[in-house]
UniProtKB/TrEMBL annotation:
Belongs to the IMPACT family. One of its GO terms (cellular component) is cytoplasm. GO terms for biological process: regulation of translational initiation. It comes from Chlamydomonas reinhardtii. Residues 78-178 form the Impact N-terminal domain. This is Impact N-terminal domain-containing protein. Pfam families: Impact_N. InterPro entries: Impact, Impact_N, Impact_N_sf, Ribosomal_Su5_D2-typ_SF.
Length: 267
């Protein structure tokens, strides 16, 4: 058991593909050990590492389960090698950049799927329709994960698998990878806009700090007001609104950015 540290090391050791290899987590005897997050792609929301498989458990707070870090997994089915790359992602553009960057032009097929909230996409990349991309998508959704992209690269081994065999091979490799991968629970967050006068800034900053908000930007207008954009945990939004209103005697509130944009304010 060892970590694949480079693409050449990965491809050079394909003869032992039945052993799982991970970057970002070590897997031994059916359990996982959390590892520091690998730089690059990822989901910025906060979370707490937990055991693999916890994504199916009911949660009392608003949020979603995603991968803790990039994961690499390998398997072999009837001499065909399947290499799985899985990432936590924050946007479709990020997902596609990672998938394109990791796709191997020398491979038989580079099939993928991603799930980012209500947005999802999959590709069979030349395999019979519905035998690769969809099973990968089903694996992501079946594990209860969000903000995740999975690429499964196949090196044909000379034995045809048939439609059913392809579904099992692609879906099984993706599912096994995701089952073993360490996860985090990320709280859902809302971007808000708060308009304030200069003399109200101290009060607004205090309210934001008390609710553990992340300040994103400040726009100082010519009329003596400041538009502050910040991220707040979704379950703290109502409390933040009340605190801002109380602190400014009802003059101000925290408005979700989408509502502010629709109303033509705070943009």
């Amino acid at each position: 058991m060892h970590l694949a540290t480079s693409r050449s090391a990965l491809l050079g050791g394909l003869h032992s593909c039945r052993a799982a290899r991970f970057v970002g987590a070590q897997v031994k005897a059916g359990h996982t050990q959390a590892a520091p997050r690998v730089g690059g792609a990822g989901c910025p929301a906060r979370g707490v590492a937990t055991r693999a498989g916890a994504g199916s458990e009911a949660e009392t707070e608003s949020g979603y389960w995603t991968l803790q870090s990039y994961v690499l997994y390998e398997s072999e089915v009837k001499k065909s090698k399947f290499i799985v790359h899985a990432w936590p992602v924050s946007s479709p553009a990020e997902a596609m950049d990672l998938i394109k960057g990791a796709s191997d032009p020398s491979a038989s097929h580079n099939c993928f799927a991603y799930r980012i909230g209500d947005e999802f996409r999959s590709s069979d990349d030349g395999e019979p329709g519905g035998t690769a991309g969809k099973p990968i998508q089903t694996a992501i959704d079946g594990e209860g994960l969000d903000r995740v992209a999975v690429l499964v690269t196949r090196f044909f081994g000379g034995v045809k698998l048939g439609a059913g065999g392809l579904v099992r091979a692609y879906g099984g490799a993706a599912q096994e990878c995701l089952k073993l991968a360490p996860r985090v629970f990320a709280k859902a967050q809302v971007e808000v806009v708060v308009e304030a006068s200069y003399d109200e800034l101290g009060t607004i900053y205090s309210c934001l700090d008390m609710h553990a908000c992340m300040r994103l930007a400040e726009d100082y207008g010519s009329s003596g007001t400041v538009s502050i954009r910040a991220l707040v945990d979704a379950d703290k939004l109502n409390s933040l609104k009340a605190a801002v209103a109380d602190g400014t005697r009802g003059k101000r509130t925290a408005v979700p950015a989408a509502e502010a944009a629709a109303a033509g304010t705070g943009a």
